[in-house]
């Protein structure tokens, strides 16, 4: 692949990530405004609480949009490895927002169970708001998840997780509305606590991944993948000082290889080029630096 084609691919990927992130922002603005409007019109405290929750989602969506807008900027003198870690920082920030949301859900659920104040107001608009939220969150979480997998974007992955948790919480609210009409008011608070615990578990794994990337922790699976490629290349007798780090969607690999000492400079250069190309083909958006030494 030529350098111009490579740059074109990065630009196109950045444009697609920004588009899906902006769609998430627009959806969050609509949901927040709609919930506040219905909450004020009906006087429902539950819907107003959901509106505040959507306002938090709007903050998360804006953070994601900003991060993907910055992450694909080219490297410069101050940022020789690019700006990709902005996405990992965004994922960590969204994890914190998810934990805060779960903390609020757990506090509210336990308070209602202890006080016995588990009755909720059920109106037609309550169902309209909840079902509409589920449909919108399902659509944008799928779009974000597809883009995250395609472009190896942790920021979009975190945003997709955020809105999948909203589907779970909205489904719990819907279940609570149905149970409330049947007279089982405690079901809403109990189900909400279960969802919060699940979200906390998923958030912990996502947060750990973001922290590992920010600290340049070694990914054993990726290291084994690199070593498998090196073993398959004829002419590489051994290697050492293998280093691997990720920054947003980009992977950076450095390795020292030992080659036949009788190779000419041109032959050694050709072989290291081949190593770099094979490694770049094994990773999405990969940057490889190979240092060659004579095997004596």
Short description:
Helix content is 72%, strand content 10%.
Taken together, the total number of domains comes to: 2
State the shape. elongated
Strand order of the largest sheet: 1-2-3
- How is the main sheet built? 3 strands, mixed
Query: If you consult CATH, what is the topology of the largest domain?
Result: Alpha-lytic protease prodomain-like
Rounded mean pLDDT score:
78
Radius of gyration: 25 Å
Classify the helix fraction into a percent range. Answer: over 70%
Order of helices and strands: HHHHHHHEEHE
Query: What is the distance, rounded to the nearest whole angstrom, between the alpha carbons of the first and last residues?
Result: 34 Å
Structural class: mainly alpha
What's the CATH superfamily of the largest domain, by name?
A: Cation efflux protein transmembrane domain
Number of strands: 3
Q: Give the class-level CATH name of the largest domain.
A: Mainly Alpha
Uncertain stretches: 1-5
Counted by DSSP, the helix tally is 8
CATH architecture of the largest domain: Up-down Bundle
Q: Report strand %.
A: 5-15%
Keywords:
2 domains; Alpha-lytic protease prodomain-like; single chain; 296 residues; elongated; Alpha-Beta Plaits
